[in-house]
Specification:
Helix 1 runs antiparallel to helix 2 and helix 1 packs parallel to helix 3. The chain is mostly helical and about 100 residues long. The chain has three helices and no strands.
């Protein structure tokens, strides 16, 4: 998955959560994009974890290969956690939109 896509999506979510004007449809679309991004990041994390397990069982594997896989896992997990938190907040924002329409 492109790091730029992940970064751009998180920036958009932060802007909306920070008060940038947005429609409910925009929030829904960003939430759907975020869910897709989560699936891609989860898939990448699982792939790297499988590769790490294979590397760890290979006596010919170099420490640098193991370190590279560990570093990538260490980068992905915080990205996933941050994206999940932003999506939870975005879902709350969408709920607020719907509740405001009901009260109006």
């Amino acid at each position: 998955m492109s790091r730029a896509l992940d970064t751009l999506l998180k920036e958009r979510l932060r802007a909306v959560l920070g008060g940038q004007p947005v429609t409910e449809a925009d929030v829904r679309r960003m939430f759907e994009d975020g869910q897709a991004c989560l699936l891609l990041l989860n898939g990448e994390l699982e792939r790297i974890e499988r590769a790490l397990a294979e590397l760890a069982s290979d006596p010919e594997c170099s420490i640098s290969e193991l370190a590279k896989a560990c570093r990538r896992i260490g980068e992905l997990r915080p990205d996933l956690d941050e994206l999940r938190a932003l999506l939870d907040d975005t879902e709350d924002r969408a709920r607020e939109f719907r509740e405001s329409w009901i009260r109006a």
